[in-house]
Amino acid sequence: MPAPTPEVAPRFGFVVHPLTPFQRRLLGVRSGDARLMRGEPSDRPPGRVISELAVERAVGTPVRGMLAAIPSLPETLLKEQAAGVGDVLDAVRLCNGAGARVVGLGAVTAVIGGQGKAVAEAAPCAVTTGNALTAWAAVETWARFDALRGRDAPVGLYGWPGAVAGGILRLLVDRGATVRVVSAAPPTPLIRTLDRLTREGPGRAELVEHERLVFERGQVLIAASSTGGRIALSSLPSGAVVIDVAAPVDVDFDVPFREDVLILDGEMVRLPGRLRGTEPWQTLYGWVTGQGERIFACFAEPMLIAGSGRLDLAACGRDLPIERLRAMAALAAVEGFSVDALCARGRPIRGARLLAFAERRVR
Amino acid sequence: MTTEDVVEKVKAAFVEALGVDEEDVTLESKIFDDLGAESLDLLEIVFLLERAFDIKIPRGGVKEASQAGVDPTQYEADGKLTALALEKLRELMPEVDPAEIKPGLGSNDIPRLFRVQTFVNIVTRLLAEKGVAVE
């Protein structure tokens, strides 16, 4: 059961970083760092607050927090992990010093140091990668689409052993679904995991050699690889439905659009109320936080944790136990976080188009 | 430091990063096909080994080492490693059955060849470079 909501919710933080040298210079402008502005290494501490945030809640006072950034680029973080962990830790401490009790890790900061574990071990507050709420958002998206079809069909899953794919697998089996995990050469740990999940039930987990076998039977594929870019849009068979959870996305748009294929966003969450910031951070960081009414689940997770006071649900690393996933799902319902519409690239999809795919009229 | 110490720490890194059972991790285990690792796990394994041994493991080090002294145009053609590159790779990775390092392999496929032993070898070499003998 969720803990009683505190009168004043703990604050949250979320750490991001620039994706390109240009964004890095803009971060220098935003944080008044002349060296960074000129494209030189900064001589200031890496963490800096970009925007104060506040999100209205379904009940209770708004949750307040902050978006913090470090100036490191992705390739630097991946190449120099130890230094990257230090930079992220500096930003986490900055957030904590400003009152954050839980800090979410965005983009590559959630990848390095054992998917956030090294930061969490040394941090003065709870740290979370957002994988649990992302897994929940993907499953909710699938459930909405499945409801349109009016039948419980098996669902394909691509991306094991990634943390999000693992969480999706556990949640789906826990809901009684039959999950067909795509693996051409399943390693022993995967076979063992599927056997265990099927024994525990109530759903089933089985193997399928290729995603083509998922589509042939008119089943939905949830794509949740950790690295993205695994499926070419042009290669999908007509009538295919993919819920893309990966960040970067798994479906590579090697062709601009296909009318006969449906690609659904699988990681977006609608907040219970308006999200306001003191600075227009979306211009620079929309790609890691989401835009408008819906934001990425990884960004929403620290808000949910802070609002509910359930700091114990913060998690880093690959493993997401089912108890934590269930608790996160229950919290999302209580706090009014939802997957309120099926979207593609951030925009809701017309009902007629959805129905055409749900009823398998697109072939 | 003994070879056993290195092997033990390397295996421990795999157990921690992948959440696999200790008995699953042998020196011959292929890290993707047998242990079920993904590319992000490689990052974690590298991070854990760097911390455990106080070394710096360069990203793409095996590929770079196999490229050393080879004209880039002679290394890969149409996305596939040349015979010369394959030969260099066989020398660099004696732990891998030479038959597996065969024509048709691309440089992106190199990590799929990695065994646990590959990391033992990398760590041993890097320790030697910083003057730590492994016996």
Structure description:
The complex is a heterodimer of chains A (363) and B (135). Chain A has 363 residues and is α/β, with parallel strands linked by helices. Chain A has helices spanning 21-30, 34-37, 74-79, 81-97, 112-115, 117-122, 131-149, 163-174, 188-200, 211-216, 282-289, 297-308, 322-335, 351-358; strands at residues 11-16, 48-55, 63-69, 100-105, 126-128, 155-158, 178-182, 204-208, 220-223, 231-232, 241-244, 251-252, 262-265, 268-270, 275-277, 290-291, 294-296, 343-344, 347-348. In chain A, the strands form five sheets. Chain A has a six-stranded mixed β-sheet, with helices on both faces. In chain A, helix 7 (131-149) packs across helix 8 and helix 7 (131-149) crosses helix 13. With 135 residues, chain B is mainly α. Chain B has a single domain (3-129), classed as ACP-like (Non-ribosomal Peptide Synthetase Peptidyl Carrier Protein, Chain A, Orthogonal Bundle), CATH 1.10.1200.10. Chain B has six helices and two strands. In chain B, 30% of the residues are buried. The interface between A and B is medium-sized, with 24 and 24 residues.
